[in-house]
Amino acid sequence: MRTIALFTCVIVAGFSVGAYAATEVIHQQGRVFSAESVSIKKGDAVTFLNDDSVPHNIMSATKGNEFNLGSQAPGTSTDVTFKEAGDVQVICAIHPRMKMMVKVTD
Amino acid sequence: MPAPGSYRSCIVAGTVASAVLGALGFSTIGYGAAVVGESRKVEITQKAPSGIDALKAQYRRPASIPFPKDNPYTPEKAALGKKLYFDTRLSVTSAQSCASCHSPGFGWGDGLAVGVGHGMAKLGRHSPTIVNAAWSAIFMWDGRLPTLEDQALGPIQSPGEMNMKLDDLMARLASIPEYKPMFEASFPGQGIKAKTLAQAIATYERTVVSERAPFDVWIEGNEKAISEQAKRGFAVFNGKAQCAACHEGWNFTNEGFQDIGLPSSDIGRGEYLPAVIKMQHAFKTPGLREINRRSPFMHDGSLATLEAVIDHYDHGGVDRPSRSDLMRPLGLTAQEKAELVAFLKTLTSDLEPTAVPVLPR
Ligand SMILES: [Cu+2]
Q: What does the entry list as the binding residues for heme c 1 (chain B) (predicted)?
């Protein structure tokens, strides 16, 4: 019982922090990103929401802002916080037409 | 993982009010990288096409061929490209042309399990068709080349394939008098160069388009164009079998890279994205046009028939971390499998014969 309560606490905390920090939500329905580019401040997050019918694999190889969400199932939302200023090329490793830019400013 | 279809009936409660079912991810906090937070389960709606007509509309043929701005179509360029495509002198032995492996006689492939290159040595992968290459977003089974122009120069230079150094090729083409005026007409003032060679071949390849198949006639509204069995196969293709999760749209591919669980040691796309688990053993999803002229199938040519391909998907293949999450046992009945085959056969057109061009001397 204690374990369950603690677990709930952790995920609720995680959720509220994520919801507070994420100012931009990028959707993936129809195998396209909902925006070609978004601008955010350094330290802010972008929420990648897979509202599509298939898994996606969102990632970036841009130096200083590398990340890889791995296979993100439909109905999953993940926040990514960008630490370095600059243009970050975000792709889906699975679908080559899915490309977008996250412009991170100081 | 629930079937994607089950998301379709979900009601959106909004992202903010979404149900938090569990933390799936993990935080990766490291120097010099973006920070990935927890993943959350969110209720979503799918804009699934409502009804068969909306679904069919997604498969309508495009009206024209897309050509890139930096290499627009001209008839001169396409005619030159066709001669180059069929010219065996593009290989070091003067024995192999592009058409040797991508032959109009075999649905623009070679009918072999894996290609045959320089010295008749077998290559590692099946020669892909060039049909509808104009619509491709990325090239080669492993996606290593970004444009059709780059692709055209790849096999020419590859030691295992045509094994021809570009400098040597330019000298050889320059020594064939009838090529010079053709290059001049296609690329005024530019001459015979790797760039113009690639642009001409790519332009010709973009004109190789699958013709109207019975499926297209059905899509356009003629209910008699395909059998009732094939129509049921189309429903299975888009429904229970989930083929359309990757083989989508009029050319039946979204160009995605997936490990479909074939027992091959070839890592495919993984060579270029070594840190991405799902790219290990992943290959580009091929289109399905002219499919029953293109056996054997798969990137390694390991499956001889459409029936064997469908059995593979029904089974789900090798269960390994890289395998696509879309791959899982499907539980198709013998009837559904037969319906799928019947449907796939409606994607083959009555391709007109392609005349081999008279080559410059
Ligand atoms: Cu994707």
A: 98, 101-102, 118
Q: What is the domain extent for residue B191?
A: 75-206
Q: How far is the CA of B109 from the centre of ligand 1 (A)?
A: 28
Ligand 1 centroid vs B282 CA: distance in angstroms?
13
Asked if ipTM goes beyond 0.90, one says: no
The domain limits of chain A are 22-105
Q: Could you tell me the CA-to-CA distances from B35 to A42, A45, B38, B117, B303 in Å, in that order?
A: 12, 9, 10, 46, 43
At B42 the pLDDT is: 86
Q: Is pLDDT above 60 for B22?
A: no
Structure tokens at B70: 């930096």
Phi, psi of A94 (to 5 degrees): -80, -50
pLDDT bin (cut points 50, 70, 90) of residue B234 is very high
CA angle centred on B341, ends B337 and B347, rounded to 5° = 150
Residues B225, B236 share a domain: yes
Residues 30-59 of B with CB under 8 A from A: 32-48
pLDDT 10s digits, B185-204: 999 999 999 999 999 999 99
Contacts of A27-33 with CB under 8 Å at 24 or more apart are A27/A51, A28/A52, A28/A56, A28/A58, A28/A92, A28/A98, A29/B46, A29/B47, A30/B47, A31/A56, A31/A92, A31/A95, A31/A97, A31/A98, A31/B254, A31/B256, A32/A97, A32/A98, A33/A90, A33/A98, A33/A99, A33/A100
pTM score, two decimals? 0.86
Contact (Cβ atoms closer than 8 angstroms) between residue B21 and residue B41: yes
Ligand 1 centroid to Cα of residue A72, in Å, is 9
Please report whether residue B354 resides in a domain: no
The topology under which CATH files domain A22-105 is: Immunoglobulin-like (2.60.40)
Does the annotation flag B247 for ligand binding? yes
| Domains of chain B: total | 3
Q: Where are the alpha helices (DSSP H) in chain B?
A: 52-57, 75-85, 98-101, 148-157, 166-174, 179-186, 194-206, 214-219, 228-238, 306-315, 334-345
Report whether pLDDT(B177) > 50: yes
Does residue A12 carry a pLDDT above 90? no
Q: Which residues 266-285 of chain B have a CB within 8 Å of chain A? A: 269, 273, 275-279, 282
- Window 226-255 of B: residues touching A by CB (8 A cutoff) are 245-246, 254-255
Q: Is the pLDDT of residue A20 over 60?
A: no
